[in-house]
């Protein structure tokens, strides 16, 4: 309980009035609705509309979460890139089950994806890496992600060193940098509603090879 000088989070609430989500309006598969919502998030000029929370677990079952950017999506899954020595990549190597969350608060929406993460091919990684700004390419070389460093100056010095090294040519793809594609085994759509009567629908794949093999259920809020 908060004292008189503190903010009481229990009193923080608002109504969700931006509209509902009805079963009759749902497409037969989840990706068209996801694409529609993502487009609306971009048109609404939300900060980082492609940002998603990636949840993994370590060998002890301890969950970890972090925000990364969605870089591609299609029927095969959702794609992000990372240092392959990072904590998330090491955890995915041991347990490739993953959960993704898109928190579009300003639209009273969120989307949750469950699936399995698989490493991208070297060709796919090289193609994306080549499209990045040069400073971002150099940044991938600089950081041994998730390792302990003594000070920020270590990163800045390394960045300047590599910027000089690669000033006259292309930046090669680091062997320790890659990406993952998360298959869509289930996708849940949440739309805020008045009086906490939110609309929630979950698509679950039936395991068949057919794109239309989706079961749709409404969930209680």
Describe what this molecule looks like in 3D:
The chain has a domain at 25-133 and 175-218: Electron Transport, Fmn-binding Protein, Chain A (Pnp Oxidase, Chain A, Roll), CATH 2.30.110.10. It has 221 residues and is an alpha+beta fold. Strands 1, 2, 3, 4, 5, 6, 7, 8, 9 and 10 form a 10-stranded antiparallel beta sheet that branches. Helices cover 25% and strands 31% of the residues. The chain is built from 5 helices and 10 strands. α4 (134-142) packs across α5.
Q: What is the arithmetic mean of pLDDT?
A: 88
> What spatial form do the alpha-carbon principal axes imply?
globular
Cα gyration radius (Å): 21 Å
Could you tell me the CATH topology label of the domain at 25-133 and 175-218: Pnp Oxidase, Chain A
Please tally the β strands and state the result: 10
SSE pattern: HEEEEHEEHHHEEEE
- Biggest β-sheet, characterized? 10 strands, antiparallel
Tell me roughly what share of residues is in helical segments: 10-25%
Our measurement of the CA-to-CA distance between the termini, rounded to an integer number of angstroms, reads 26 Å
Name the CATH superfamily classification of the domain at 25-133 and 175-218: Electron Transport, Fmn-binding Protein, Chain A
Strand-pairing-aware structural class: alpha+beta
Number of helices: 5
CATH architecture of the domain at 25-133 and 175-218: Roll
CATH class of the domain at 25-133 and 175-218: Mainly Beta
**Poorly predicted residue ranges:** none
Report strand %.
25-35%
